[in-house]
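Suppose a colleague, Dr. K., hands you the sequence of a protein chain of 325 amino acids and asks what its three-dimensional shape might be. Before reaching for any lab equipment, you can write down a predicted structure in token form. Begin with the sequence itself:
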Amino acid sequence: MSRIQSLQHFLSIEPERVSHAEKFVSALGGFLGILLIAVITYQTTGVDGTVVIVPSMGASAVLLFAVPHGKLSQPWALVGGHIISALVGVICFKLVADTFLAASLAVGVAIACMHLLNCIHPPGGATALAAVIGGSAIHELGFGYILIPIFINTLILLIVAVGFNAFFPWRRYPASLAKKTTLPGHAEAGAIDMSGISQDDLDYAMEKINLLIDITAEDLMKLYALASKHSQSKQLQASQIKLDHYYSNGLFGKMWQVRHIIDESAHADSTKDKVIYKIMAGPGRRSTGTCSREEFAAWARNEVLRNENSWQRADKDEAVTEPDS
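The predicted structure, expressed as tokens, is then:
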């Protein structure tokens, strides 16, 4: 690895994978978001000067328009992150006389609160900080700072993000509005075989998505490796497949299935050790099949118990209901 490559690795500089059109759309969205915040806040509240808009909204605009599908960009993160941070900032300013200490506490406590409320939004730290060091115009607002400008700014930015991103098929905000994509050759994501996938494959996929994703391909590979290792560690053994027991493949959606072992032909030779099963839920319901005990164990993810209207995992107090068709 050359010195330049070493420096790029140290600085985490990765090749840009989004198109120029996507970059332009992100910039345009940020421009419109901030412009409308300033105009609408002024027209509806009559306030002027630094109170109209807080700098942290610029950081939020980057997230909402450049990384609209990111976890830190979603509505609860945006609204909850700013509101709780504004509240923390005002309280710290009022209770702590030393400005440096108040500013430090505001950011630290805001981070803790966002963690507790599951609304981590990095610009929230700036919102809390502004409540302490924002000057007399901000200080005179007191707790009103939470409503104007924070809540008004946040609400406008949220509405603009939802409306603006809706014009572009590959962008949806919030992420929950994104259409579920079925990949060619696979009925469900849960049935995808990820064996043999390399980091180059992930790089290609991220480029085709044409959206900035706030996780690197390298981290995705690490997540897959850990998930794969965990999955393999939980695989049932052939000796655990028993007559008159129920088993699930542990997949999601329409690929989820429960099978009941209704007969067996035990044999010392694993190739002749057969089981006969009936599908109780999922694709092929009420049909029967036969396979070796080892093949069945490779299919099964966990044993389940049959209740009156649902299935429950045998190793956990956890209900597993049949998915909607």
